[in-house]
Amino acid sequence: MNIQSNHARTVVCGTLISILCLLSVSSFAATGTLIYRLYLPDGPWLKSPLPEITYHYSDGRESRTLPTCPQNQLSWLYHLLVGPGQEKHCAWPEFANPLYNVFLNSALPDSASYYWVSHFDIDPFMSIEVAGTFVDARFMSLNVYDATGSSFERNGIVSGLADYQILPQEVDANPWQSSAQPGAKYVINVVPNPTQFGAELPYPELEEGAPVGTYPEPCTDQCPPTNYFFRGARGVGLLGEVNNAYLSALIQPQDGQVLVIRGRAPVSKMNRLAQPWPAQEQVRYWSLCNYIYESPYPLVINADINGLFNGQLLKPSCAKDIDIPLDGVQHYTIVVGKSSDKPQSLPDDVVWLSHSELFPNQRHILLLRNQLPNNFPQAIQNVPQDFNPLSAFSVMGLYYPRIHPCDAETFTNLGWQACIQQ
């Protein structure tokens, strides 16, 4: 059962800016969606070259190449002012990263992911050409979503391509396929009947269903147990990246309690460069992030007054692999709790993720991501989607993240080691 996200977004955003938030999702009612993603780009996101979008028609209408929409720190304002339908006039009207566009902080985003969104009306006579260049980043992809905001498949071709799967216009020019410099061109055609993997993606059919921007309703009964990670079914309408898989854990913030999370980290790329894949690493990228368990499922972001001195006033509750310290056997320690329970100083081997300060008593949900596993049997992708923590543990073994509830004073005074021995 689904609910419209517009009502829930007023809950998440707060009274003062609820009107703006409602406007920001209004264009999500379009019937098809393109998303261009970069994870950890090597350089400012504003300087990332965007693919060109051209609409082609089989009924005699003239092809249309869309100019790129304004791309700057206030592009979200352009989206609000121009309103629905702007995607008919320019390409990539919506930029989404929870730190740079709080009005599109929805659908369980990762703070390391930068993505650009373009909506289109489904037309049985239209195909879409996306022409771009390979850039330096940890990960790049292009995804097509149907009227419900979900991925789909046609002729055995899934509606999402990862960087290393994209065919370049020149031989040995894709830096994720061979040791090439970024900058070479590619062309991907979105067509009703795709046959060429790496150069074509399926075009969505006109379908019945909830429009994009409608998110699954949080569970109210028969929920999975709190403080245990499980793998659930892929959500409808969440615009998920097809190359990611997720473990989830429902948690209930409590005063005076922290959650100590320990597990073994998969070996990942640990840089921001385009490099051949598959490689020796077990996954391309992994992260653990904290979200409010209420539609539209935003990433927890709190104000950090200390950030005034380094230009980062907003602090996301998201730990990406490149920032997580590991011990000698590849284990991490991530502690989740209320900001009021955070010690003044943390051990060097601990990452802290805060609960929401605006909604401190709201249920939260933790998400552990694995991206593009490479012959990695313990990857989340191999866990059954049965909501059962035991299934996840049986597949992942030492890589399964264990949650240890702990008294905040014990953690502060005796360290995380005392928490996992309780």
Low-pLDDT parts are 1-30
What is the fold-level CATH name, i.e. the topology of the largest domain? Jelly Rolls
Count the helices. How many?
A: 6
Structural class: mainly beta
The CATH class of the largest domain: Mainly Beta
The value of Rg in angstroms is 21 Å
Average pLDDT figure: 88
> Architecture of the largest domain, according to CATH?
Sandwich
Strand ordering within the main sheet: 5-6-2-8-11
Distance between the termini: 40 Å
Beta-strand proportion: 25-35%
For the biggest sheet, the summary is: 5 strands, antiparallel
Total tally of structural domains:
2
Shape: globular
N-to-C series of helices and strands:
EHHEEEHEEEEEEEEEEEEEEEEEEEHEHH
Percent helix among the residues?
10-25%
Number of strands: 24
Oligomeric state of the chains present here: single chain
What would you say this structure looks like, in words?
The two termini are 40 Å apart. Helices cover 10% and strands 30% of the residues. It has two domains: 2-202, no CATH class; 219-420, Jelly Rolls (Sandwich), CATH 2.60.120. The chain is globular, with a radius of gyration of 21 Å. The protein is mainly beta and 422 residues long. It is built from six helices and 24 strands. Helix 1 (5-13) runs antiparallel to helix 2.
Task: Provide tags for this entry.
single chain; 422 residues; mainly beta; Jelly Rolls; 2 domains; five-stranded antiparallel β-sheet; five-stranded mixed β-sheet; globular; disordered N terminus
